[in-house]
Records
---
Amino acid sequence: MSATEIDFYQLLEVERTADDKTLKSAYRKLAMKYHPDKNPGCKDSEARFKAISVAYDCLKDPQKRAAYDRYGHAAFQNGGPGGGPGGDFGDIGDIFESIFGQAFGGGARQQARRGADLRYDMEITLEDAFHGKKTEITIEVSQGCEPCHGSGAEPGTGARRCAMCGGHGKVRAQQGFFMVERTCPTCHGRGEVIEKPCRACGGEGRVDKPQQLEIDIPPGVDSGTRIRLSGKGEAGPFGAPPGDLYIFLHVKRHDVFEREGTTVLTRVPITFTTAALGGSIEIPGVDGERLSLDIPAGIQSGKQLRKRGAGMPVLQGRGRGDLVIEISVETPTRLTARQKEILRELQETETGDECPGSKGFFERIKDAWTGITD
């Protein structure tokens, strides 16, 4: 169907039986949505705003609506059943054409479609995500045919205008008041017919072959980060522009570190003597450097310590996140006779005040047992 025959009721998103109040409400809702002030610089919204205004101006007038309901758009065409000049409807084709483009008419031949976008999944290490990385990949992708330069025609030959559509890419047929327009079945919308297809690509204008690409991975990327390589996707048919290639990154699981955004987490076991007395230990950083960590005396398992600025870099920004260290106090399992003797001596000196958590727990248990026996 051509641009000038888009149904006014469909445009306003109402039924043909809609009353004046419903029409007005629908128009206000759509006018607010597509008003140029709310969509600055958007030509599609501006054109749609004009189109719904034209539709509403027709349907809010009882006489115009009656003529439209009976004859459709023909009521407002020169010499149509409605009589008289088109008036406000003279430019409706241009308005609708700017909104709906080639799908609803337009005369120009169909543009060759752009090549498809492609996806490539890449696995990297946490270290790669930290430092960034330049690497190369090789993918099999359709590219423009060199012998015919993407035209699809055998070198030295060309394409001729399609006789079926006269080079427009579309054919039309009259059905009552409507002019139905379809893609030309002979040239498939190109407006041209290749008489002698290129033997290298079979007339497609593109062939599949390996392509080597350099990928620049910036520091701070995470799983799900997408890198776009413009124009490195599948070549379009008959010399049309290529699509894009999207690299989706997946960071491998690390043996030592876990990651939450720019924060890096790790679990560090310490001896129970270090936990009791405190001290200083060295731990690895995600950047490979050694970090000194002060352990406060009396620290408990599960306690988290934080190293500011020792986490992952901010992607395309400045600074780094934090490194969070969860302490795990390890109970010794292999003791010498002398070590056991020392621990027994310690045990004999214990009063219960050394471990307030344990003392408080057993006091609560004792109170619970006393309540039961009473």
---
Amino acid sequence: MENRIVELLKESDALLTGHFLLSSGKHSDKYVQCAKLLQYPEKAEEVCQVLKEKLKDEKIDIVVGPAMGGIIIAYELGRALGVPAIFTERENNEMTLRRGFEIKEGQNVLVVEDVVTTGKSSLETIKVIEDYGGKVVGIASLVDRTGGKDIGTKLFSAVALEINTYDKENCPLCEKNIELVKPGSRKKF
């Protein structure tokens, strides 16, 4: 099934190859732009069916996606699971629930992301959920880029991708003078 997910990423031009500046400041030879896949509802639905199957033994009352990347996939997975889907967002640089969203004490909550690399946004969302008294089931993601690192909770992903990352000072792509691009902006550096 992972091969099918990679195929869907490639079909939608969501799996990019080149020289990319990541938000961490590191460089990479590949980048996953899940929004490119998620613009196709039928492909989003197919990926969420894979996640739904992986989550079949979990009790989930509500899904929460961190804005921006988690919103669409949370909605689609919520639909597949038949549960509400809400999102967290930053306000004054702090992850929070707004827009009248709430998590009830004791609810089983699944955090939903497009890509998990370090888990930073997901972990901030987990704190919000726990502050409301919710019980975190785990994190579901379209793509797992953690490289097998423990992020402190269960991770359910449609596909795990091994993608090379480099410090700027030791980047073989820089040494080859391959153009550096910040994903999403098409801006060259």
---
Amino acid sequence: MPPSAGVTEPRGTASCACRRESYVGTWLPEPLLTSPDVAEDVELADSVSTAMLLVLETLAPTERAVFVLREVFGLGYEEIAEAVDKSPAAVRQIAHRARTHVAARRPRGAVSPSETRSALDAFRRAVETGDLQSLLDVLAPDVVLLGDGGGVRQAVPRPVVGADKVGRLLVAGLGGSTAASLRPVQVNGRPALVLRLDGAIDTVVTVRVDDGLITGLYAVRNPGKLSYMQRETALRR
């Protein structure tokens, strides 16, 4: 189930003024502030999660369009063929290829909001207190940290891999800071954290959780992508 479900436009996939091809640094989807009830619809929440949006971005544009039109909106192959200027037979092949691609890369199983919140609470406490060991306890050994500053704000220039590297980086940057505050919110249908510096939104952190441990950390700092954190975005199927 892809990310455009019920969103007026698929902002998360390409709404930044700069397309991924010319984007400076790591590209991450825009964080959308969502209401808590979105998390209750597990399938919808999964479809708009940061991890799933990143999977969708690995599809070619036509594959992504076919996948969304077929899997989200339930259009027939004839209608899709007309929309993408392909034959129905070609659309069937594209749809099959896209489904296979997504199935192979989508996050493993649905993680409950309570499990994600539990991991995030432990993560927040460890970062705020600068407790490296507690942070390592909630990070998976092969955790990956991605940062998106869009060339405007400083962010990690490439993925940081491994609990020790990620933990030490976070503790050095945020541990014990009195100017920084981490607050829980709902982003893209999932529990997340907003980092504020002196009261202003600085970073939105979403996570991927597997087996109770954080396996992916996605930190968006690009100011151009934080505008949708000012008000809730209505998501529906």
---
Amino acid sequence: MDLEAEARAIHDFQLQAVPGLFQTKDYARAVLGAGWPPKAEEENSRLLAVRLERQTLLQRKHPPLLWVVIDEGVLRRPVGSAEIMTEQLGRLLEIAAMPFIRLQVLPFAQGAHAAMDGAFKVLDMSNGETVAYAEVPGTGQVITDSDEVSQCALRFGALRSAALPPDESGEFIRQYKEKYENETQ
């Protein structure tokens, strides 16, 4: 959270879920509620509040540049109800239209890719440093070793080039949104 707040640019790859900065309240609640072992309701409520507070980053006068690649599984995996997914995918489309955000979808048709082993971020910090953040179940790890950070940056570049362009990604998301909308009728 602190790294995101200080970053000039964030490059984020997600395999399993919509990035926390883009999650609607109901989607985030469903994600947090799916954890195992289950957390107390008070802890889930606290984590939800923190996740939603992080999103104020998007309303800053000078937000960081965000380049996000999500795996198609993020769109296909129903989190909560069809209504929750419809709202969440609508939110993704709104966010993708923001001038400081680029959102791409990596379709299953691309097959194996450079990050089959997990989600990660590369953050260009305001002090000129670049760090990476790798997610593991229940937590994450900040990576500062320059060689490892460089490898993550190269990996993100490979993902970005394999993903659909932003405009085609928007249409791809729209198709899944319509699928979920049809399930609610």
